[in-house]
Amino acid sequence: MATAEATLTRDVDSQGDIEFPQELSAFIDEWKVKPGSLIMILHKTQETFGYISRAAAEKLSKLTGIPLARIYGVITFYHFFKTTKPGKHRISVCLGTACYLKGGQDLIEEARSILGIGEGGVTEDGLFSIDPVRCVGCCGLAPVITVGGDTYGKLNKEQLPEIIAKYQNS
Fold first, then answer.
1. Four-residue CA torsion sign, 22, 59, 130, 161
2. Strand order in 89-94's β-sheet?
3. Helix crossing, 68-77 with 38-49: angle to 10°?
4. Proportion of the chain in helix, strand, coil states, percent, rounded to 5
5. What global pTM score does this model have?
6. What is the C-alpha end-to-end distance of the chain, expressed in Å?
7. Assign residue 32 a region: left if phi > 0, alpha if psi is -120 to 50, beta otherwise?
8. Tens of pLDDT along the chain (170 residues)?
């Protein structure tokens, strides 16, 4: 958790006060009065920005009246929420049962090796990040990765360099 907090602190220094689009502000106004609304608000915030920065978390706290510590508790508890800006091309590697058994973990390790990034990392050029996911609903194509809206199935690690090169050159 210390890493997430350090990252969140850096974000506030680089972004200052954050402006929420009108659509997000309206969503927050509608949902903040409903019991148990924090997760819905966090999902919408991450959908808007791609992650939840320190500045966004602080603004959510002010707008909703929810203590910042509670917001952080939810963000850091659920793996879905990201506290760092993802790469332009998010590589999601399925680790559902079928994909895991057919080499999903090997795909993650190979992709990280090719891109030179660790767990939770983003390439220096900001193009790529890698996220393990629990299931993408394509068990018959295991193992599966998605890059943006593109799905690649029945993969082996030898196929990854060509797939990654496609996005490096776009």
1. positive
2. 128-133, 89-94, 145-147, 150-152
3. 70
4. 50, 10, 35
5. 0.72
6. 35
7. alpha
8. 444 444 444 443 344 589 999 999 999 999 999 998 999 999 999 999 999 999 999 999 999 999 999 999 999 998 889 998 999 999 999 999 999 999 999 999 999 999 999 988 899 999 999 999 999 999 999 999 999 889 999 999 999 999 999 999 87
Using alpha carbons, list the distances in angstroms from residue 147 to 57, 70, 105, 136, 157.
Answer: 27, 32, 16, 12, 15
**22-31 and 54-64 helices, crossing angle to 10°:** 50
Q: Dig out the tokens for 44 from the structure.
A: 């919408």
Structure tokens at 41: 């608000």
